[in-house]
């Protein structure tokens, strides 16, 4: 959102993006896989992979953006070129579709989880719009879309921190529980004869 003059398309956060975003989420995805939690495994793995890809695009040694510059060697110039922006926007569209799918699936868990994916879907839609607008030369409108995406990501981050606090309080057996808006009660499904009950579904309802 350009607070305190923040800029640079996230280049300053390459380190945190790789290790706090990509690596940490990938490890979390593997652990969720071991626990048999399919939905969190897919979510953390997908978003972790996105952060790895986003960081790699901005690292010069990967040579992802430099070919779009006039010299074919300038990563910074390539990141702001029309060809790169118009192409990279499709990644954000793909991520927006995934967030929509995750949001629908999250309606089996709780309101907070669902709102996180709604916010992230808006983030990616605004980023794709921003990149296409910037690629067309509409700098003012594109910048507003980027700031809107930042605001939506800020909301998603706050919701994520809230959900983290809820889970930590529960893990440490605090004498109270913060509300998350359990949506599991809205869904009723009787397994077919011979079909095993979905372990993750039961855990989601029980945990939230």
User: What's the helix count?
Assistant: 7
Low-confidence stretches: 193-206
Shape: elongated
The rounded Rg comes to 20 Å
Average pLDDT for all residues: 88
Structural class: mainly alpha
Instruction: List SSEs in N-to-C order.
Output: HHHHHHH
Number of domains: 2
- Please report the distance between the alpha carbons of the first and last residues: 32 Å
Provide a short characterization of the protein structure:
Belongs to the acetate uptake transporter (AceTr) (TC 2.A.96) family. The chain has about 210 residues and is an all-alpha fold.
Structural write-up:
Keywords: Membrane, Transmembrane, Transmembrane helix. The chain has 208 residues and is mainly alpha-helical. It folds into two domains: 54 residues; 98 residues. It is 67% helix and 0% strand. The longest helix has 33 residues. 28% of the residues are buried. The C terminus is likely disordered.
């Amino acid at each position: 959102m350009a607070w305190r003059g923040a800029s640079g398309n996230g280049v300053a956060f390459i380190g945190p993006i790789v290790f706090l975003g990509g690596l940490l989420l990938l490890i979390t995805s593997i652990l969720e896989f071991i626990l048999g939690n399919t939905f969190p495994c897919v979510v953390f793995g997908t978003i972790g992979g996105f952060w790895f890809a986003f960081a790699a695009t901005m690292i010069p040694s990967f040579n992802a953006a430099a070919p779009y510059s006039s010299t074919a060697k300038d990563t910074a110039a390539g990141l702001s070129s029309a060809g790169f922006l118009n192409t990279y926007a499709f990644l954000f569209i793909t991520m927006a579709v995934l967030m929509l799918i995750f949001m629908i699936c999250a309606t089996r868990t709780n309101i907070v989880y669902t709102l996180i994916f709604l916010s992230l879907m808006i983030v990616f839609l605004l980023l794709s719009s921003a990149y296409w607008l910037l690629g067309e030369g509409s700098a003012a409108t594109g910048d507003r879309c980027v700031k809107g995406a930042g605001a939506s990501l800020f909301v998603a981050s706050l919701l994520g921190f809230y959900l983290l606090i809820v889970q930590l309080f529960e893990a440490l057996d605090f004498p109270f529980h913060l509300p998350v808006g359990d949506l599991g009660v809205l869904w009723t499904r009787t397994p077919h004869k011979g079909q095993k009950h979905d372990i993750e579904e039961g855990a989601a309802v029980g945990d939230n």
